Amino acid sequence: MGVRRQIDVAGIVQGVGFRPYVYRLAIERNLTGTVTNTSSGVTIEIEGSLEAVEEFVTRLPVAAPPLSHITQVQVRDLPCSGDREFRILASRRGERVHTLISPDVAICPDCLRELFDPTDRRFRYPFINCTNCGPRFTIVRDIPYDRPHTSMAVFPMCAACQAEYDDPLNRRFHAQPNACWKCGPQVELWDRKGNRIATKDPIAEAAAGLDAGLVVAVKGLGGFHLAVDATNPAAVMLLRERKRRVEKPFAIMVPDLSAATEVCEVDEAARKALQLVQRPIVLLPKKCPSRISDHVAPRNRDLGAFLPYTPLHHVLFAEGGFIALVMTSANLSEEPIAIDNREAVERLSGLADYFLVHDRQILLRCDDSVVRTIDGSTRQMRRSRGFVPVPVFLKEDVSPVLAVGGELKNTICLAKGKHAFLSQHIGDLENLESYHFFEEAIEHLERILEIEPRAVAYDLHPGYFSTKWALAQKNVQLVGVQHHHAHIASCMAENHLDGRVIGFAMDGTGYGTDGHIWGGEVLVADYRHFERAAHFGYVPMPGGETAIHEPWRMAASYLAHHFGDDFVNLAIPFVETLDRAKTDLLLRMVAKNVNSPLTSSCGRLFDAVAALIGLRSHVNYEAQAAIELEMSIEQGTDDHAYPMDETRIEDTWIIDTKRMFEAIVQDLRRGVSTAAISQRFHNALVAVFSRIAELVRERTALDRVCLSGGTFHNVYLLTHLQKRFEERGFHVFTHSEVPGGDGGLSLGQALVAHHRVSGESLNL
Ligand SMILES: [Zn+2]
Ligand SMILES: [Zn+2]
Ligand SMILES: [Zn+2]
Predict the structure, then answer these.
(1) Which ligand has the nearest atom to the CA of 179?
(2) pLDDT at 98
């Protein structure tokens, strides 16, 4: 006696080889029935003996294809229909197929083997791929995800490729980018003017150029990279000069794990992170000495390293035998990454000597992702290629909302149902090209995700371009969300929390509800509301934005704040090296309240301490002073903490740094090392934050703590604080799937907007 069941599978189950997988699973068990793509995923009807059908249902999620992601399986009984075979059906006619789109994925082991097999018809073909690997998100123009809707539409398949594509038992069944030497995209090498260089082997020629110390622009999955040999100091400096990038670290691509181990400390967690199918850049401790040029990541203990992810990368390494190539986004400073061949030649002329291009169009740019491992777990620093557009899975359904993020490291978020889709890294919106990319990303994601937002969430900062864009939208509800509230909501969302939490939101800049610049905030918050439970005492930021680029201004401001203008008589190196005229001007600005906004920013406090102890008076990239302050700690040397005080004004604690600055000045006079001062400062933050958390717990009885904001990229602070909180009986929640910095802001905005719009009343 047979049975028949209907199985509805939801998640990322289309375009990832799911139907052929179901087909094989059914055939192996002598089951009959059908499988088809539907609007919500895949529907299977399966018929056979009870035992075989049940075994099929149990097995289904276990061995699913590597790129699939099942979120739900529903099974119900059907009457038997007496099918004689198992068939893959075309998508149901008339039904709108709404499903999740797979991200771009690194070449799989099967394709890699074929790539270097001289007997294979795709031997050294730089665009080899199959259902388990290759481009997806960056070649999709529209949905459903079928070849005519991708940039592969212009490459009709040859008979051999078509036969693979049509065969349910083939690894390339319905692999939309399927191609070969005969029918698919081809590589060319161009000179700096965009003229094609006549050569039989463009990749070998490019490798020779790299070997000779040239800069080569290489077209990848989500955009162009600029590549140089990372072991050649002159080549790295040449790239720095041309890219006008003074000190900001470059990422390196290494051919394999053993090369990574040769230049970096690679523990088990890092090994796993490097080999993720997303192939993110992984921040790893440098090995010193190593063959990597010091110019790659000057004054930094870490190196960002990643493994090759396209077949083209693999062929390039096989040709050149490089131990590491600098692979940095092809752009000038903070512009978006170049994706189009001609655009690349135009924008990068003067930067690259060669262009290794191909004719498979990139439809949507997508920068490399960046992660780091802390205590064995992987944390996102920049969630982009390989992870987008996989949604962040939410605990509860949300109404369709668009959140437009902040100003720096912008991402947007489209949320609907249990899915929050964060965009790829868009960049700094003050840049015109990035702003265009921002608009393009919203339009593209709304289309391919089929989300029509009913509300648009934005940051309260009136000057942000994302805010201005949001305020110009018509016929949607607009929801302004305070920056640090969004940070905490983002941390809550990825940890599936609801109710109220104690949120530590520490970063550089966020517009406060009182018009001042916040950034050292302890909030009591749920998704709808927050109250400010504690913050650093306000100090002026002389020169506004300029103070961000010139940390000496913050040091002077803090000293003037705590010691009065007489601080200029302190006998410490910082004061002795100050430019008197500039300092006088700065003090007058503060006294007359000219361009000196007040700030409670934790990032600016790091800047002040870094400048005061002589680490850095000017920065060349965002957060450089804070990063170098953390790097200056020599682990385990000093557990002393500087004193800080908190005073209560109504229900808010104000953190006072006066005694800490006095102690630092005293240590400087006594010649205490930079490493010790830095560590005592970090310890002071840990101590005062844990005191504040206890004070808030006494008042509110809350014991869940969320840590968010760019400051928590600081591994010393994050790990020590987490440990201290846990010792005191708090439950600590941090970011891992979503960046803790402003790249994760849009997720929090989306959740706050949903809760405000849906008008649930929560008791705060
Ligand atoms: Zn493959
Ligand atoms: Zn072909
Ligand atoms: Zn922030």
Answers:
(1) 2
(2) 57
